Amino acid sequence: MNGVFGKDERHKTIATLLILILLCLGIALKYRISADTHLLLLFTIMIFEIGVVDRKYMVIPDKLCIMIFILGIIRNFMNLRLIKESLSAVCVFGVIFTAIYLLTKGTMIGGGDVKFVSAVGLFIGFSRLTEALMLGCVICIVVCLVEICCYRKKRPFAFGPYIATGIYLALLM
Asked: What's this model's pTM, rounded to 2 decimal places?
């Protein structure tokens, strides 16, 4: 995504994220707040940002997917029981979304959606990602049907905001 976000900005953002993670972990240790809670808060901020950016520009920034991927690695190392489910999510949904992307030549979902879902899978695991995608698809269908009925036209739409909404709702369940 060097056209929208430059290479230098991506490196600065990743460094900033790592510093932010260390600062949050320090606060967690001091005040006995779980480190996982801090990671979930950072994750929530990132999926919100992805939803906003994708809705406005129809692009999911690589830097945010990389940051979610890094958070997923950290979360898996903090809780080794998550690794199997997380890797299952990355493999299964990564393959499914890549196949959809390739078969439709990027007309149904974009490459950013593939990276976003894979990174999220590493963070939340297979079962939560399954719930999140089902919720996101239902919300997307409802919104698209309302738009078609009310405005009588079809238009391209970003899938990222619906995925992000589904993820957030799945985390609350």
From this structure: 0.81
For the chain, how many structural domains are there in total? Answer: 1
Note down the domain range covering 168: 7-172
The reply to whether 2 falls in a domain is no
Give the tens place of pLDDT for each residue, 80-112.
889 999 999 999 999 999 999 999 998 889 999
Asked if 104 and 53 count as a contact pair (C-beta separation under 8 A), the reply is no
The reply to whether 165 falls in a domain is yes
Rg (CA), the chain: 17
Q: Confirm whether 1 is domain-assigned.
A: no
Q: Concatenated DSSP letters for 94-141?
A: HHHHHHHHHHTTTSSS-HHHHHHHHHHHHHH-HHHHHHHHHHHHHHHH
